[in-house]
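Case study 2.
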Amino acid sequence: MMPELPLSVVSSDERARASSDAIVTIEIVAAQNGILGGLDQVLTRLRAQPNLQAWALSPGAALKPGDVTLRLVGAHRATSPLLNALTGTLATLSGWTTAARALVEAAKPALVIFRGAANAHPDLWAQLERAAVAGGCLGADSIWARGLLARDSILLAGDTVRALRAFDATLPPEIPRLTWVDLFHDEVDEAVRVALAFGDKLGGIALPIQEAEPTRTLDQVARIRAQLELAGFPRVQVFLVGNVSVELLQARERARIDGFFVGGQIAAAPPLAFTAALREANGVPLGRRGESFGKTPSLRLKRIV
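Prediction:
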């Protein structure tokens, strides 16, 4: 048996190999307030790695700076290459989930329906929708999203009522019929015209938000509601589509809004900040200067792998 060599004569390759074989504990920590999203995608990545253990907060958990979101235990050579992908996934999807939750809370009791986003890469659409739903939005497969007639269909038909009749023939009865009313006639007149043509089958009407003057949109809604009530259709719901500003939400007492269709606003949300820290190697606590050594105590973490 060869005697153990002193550290001074151990080759750099051997030290590197020993470092890569070390069993390490790594923590991914939230750096700002928000809502945890993307855990399902993280779990898919982790399950593909052999001999790796992981603990995490529950999906949709509230985050504050310093919260351990994910803890990994495994060989350094296996865990280290994953860190950028894991923190990036958590950052992007938690940013979307946080934006969705903030919008849902601010809009209550109105519905918030996610309808897709033209400002996101199509490869990300499924993840974006999952994040929006995790934040409390209704998804693109909800009855409200399925029941909204496309603007292009109205333009191609040349008439809102004609387009909605064709659309109505394709929908099952449980789906509410919603249509835009801003394409050919005054919005108030068009809303009443459609309501008279469809009666109780009309679930609601949709209007784009005038982002430069959001309160003007509310004035439109107030006029539409007044005329619909006079015509005997107080139950027809009113939805706004577009970016929902703080100014609009603060002025909502001017007109009742039943729901908001959103998409790009959530997709444009900034990522939530996370950091990764090495806490243990082969059971030995580690830490940077000014930090506590070793694993961060957390009773909220649950074993996921």
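The mean pLDDT is 87.
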